[in-house]
Design brief:
This protein is an alpha/beta fold. Helix content is 47%, strand content 15%. It is built from 11 helices and 9 strands. The chain has a 4-stranded parallel β-sheet. Helix 6 links the parallel strand 6 and strand 7. Helix 2 runs parallel beside helix 11 and helix 4 packs parallel to helix 5.
Length: 220
């Protein structure tokens, strides 16, 4: 089974331990928020396609903060796959699993992690060569206990997951301690309201806290 996600890139995301998930309304905020995250030790981000500014934000961050691994999330259509690949995203993510989107990502060579929340989702992802998947929404769906239950039948395949949804500094350590979890999706590191308020210090503070928890958990 060929991976739909570049192994070297997956290793970088695992090393990062957390992917900051961002909704950016104004592309002018992209570089400052990226630098604020990087100052806190966060080295991977996912820009969601929930606003028209996302692709311009991607281009700006790639140009000005090249140290970051920058992917794009909320990819829902084949056309978006092409746009994201042309804009230079390192990887793509979706909240669910769409066979046409997965096929387009494979065709364009874009590393892609579909969203899963059931065993049937996992099997469809496997059918498309995916070994790295987004578990979304994590906490509302039953959290780590639920992920362990649905992932167990496929453990021999070496699948890995990036949980997102309802995670925070209080519950992230338990997820990180699980061997099936590659990294976490961190939407709380730079929430939309903090970006709009341009509170870069708070974003750096939240990032520093999360990275310290990652390092502490991995030392155990």
């Amino acid at each position: 089974m060929n991976s739909a996600f570049d192994p070297k890139l997956a290793a970088r995301i695992e090393e990062a331990g957390i992917v900051a998930v961002l909704v950016i309304d104004d592309a002018k905020d992209a570089v400052p928020v990226a630098r604020a995250l990087l100052a806190g030790g966060v080295s991977a981000i996912e820009l969601t396609l929930r606003t028209p500014a996302a692709l311009d934000a991607l281009r700006a961050i790639k140009s000005e903060v090249p140290e970051l691994v920058v992917g794009v999330g909320t990819i829902l259509t084949v056309e978006q796959v092409k746009q994201v690949a042309e804009a230079g995203a390192a990887f793509g993510v979706a909240p669910g699993i769409n066979p046409r989107v997965l096929a387009a990502a494979r065709e364009t060579g874009l590393s892609f992690a579909p969203g899963i929340v059931t065993p049937s989702d996992i099997e469809q992802a496997i059918e498309h060569g995916c070994k790295l998947m987004k578990f979304f929404p994590a906490e509302p769906s039953g959290g780590l206990a639920y992920l362990k239950a649905i992932a167990a039948p496929y453990a021999h395949l070496g699948l890995r997951f990036v949980p997102l949804g309802g995670l925070n500094a209080k519950n992230m350590a338990s997820y990180l301690a699980d061997s099936a979890v590659t990294a976490l999706g961190g939407s709380w590191l730079a929430p939309r309201e903090l970006i709009k308020a341009r509170d870069w210090e708070k974003i750096t503070s939240l990032s520093t806290e999360a990275v310290e928890i990652i390092q502490s958990t991995r030392r155990k």
